[in-house]
Amino acid sequence: MFVSFEGIDGCGKSTQVNLLVNYLEEKGIPYIKVREPGGTHLGEKIRELLITQEMCARSELLLFLASRAQLVESVIKPALKNGKIVIADRFAHSSVAYQGCGRELGPETVKILNDFATDKTYPDIVFYIDVPVNVAMERMKNQHKDRIEKEGKEFWESIRNCYLKMAKENENFVIIDGTRTIEEIHREIVKVFNAYL
Predict the structure, then answer these.
(1) 83 is in an annotated binding site
(2) Which domains are delineated in the chain?
(3) Single Gene Ontology BP term?
(4) Which of 38, 62, 15, 1 is nearest to 194 (CA)?
């Protein structure tokens, strides 16, 4: 099974990834946790470029896709083949939202490129943790921000709207209200996850 977590920065996604991983550990369920960009030697080098270097939107997208392609071939496909559950802190839907909508490269264009980069390997479940942009921005106000996280409210609204549209169009999306407590969110995620097992 392949599970990804999506949402705008500040939604609490990474916290929930770690809680689900802890749950799998406790249950003795074999898994692998990956993050995007990154998760491989090449991916981590690309991550550093994406976070620190100024670049045009197309370059940004192509770097994300390169990292993703390597992650799928080197880590995700082998893990799935070996019966492990893959837990991804972001995956292909992030590019549709961030580069397709936020950077205005077009969601359909990004979807086509994602198909190529992932060899059409997609999550069985996408937990989309939804929070209003002002809530996410408030949560992040005292954190060090990378190049992308420094974008303005309009950028984040576009991304959130894109995620909500994808959630309506894809049966494997599960919308999670990210304004609730960490524990409430975790309980809902575990309940949905167990229903898929």
Answers:
(1) no
(2) 2-196 (3.40.50.300)
(3) dUDP biosynthetic process
(4) 1
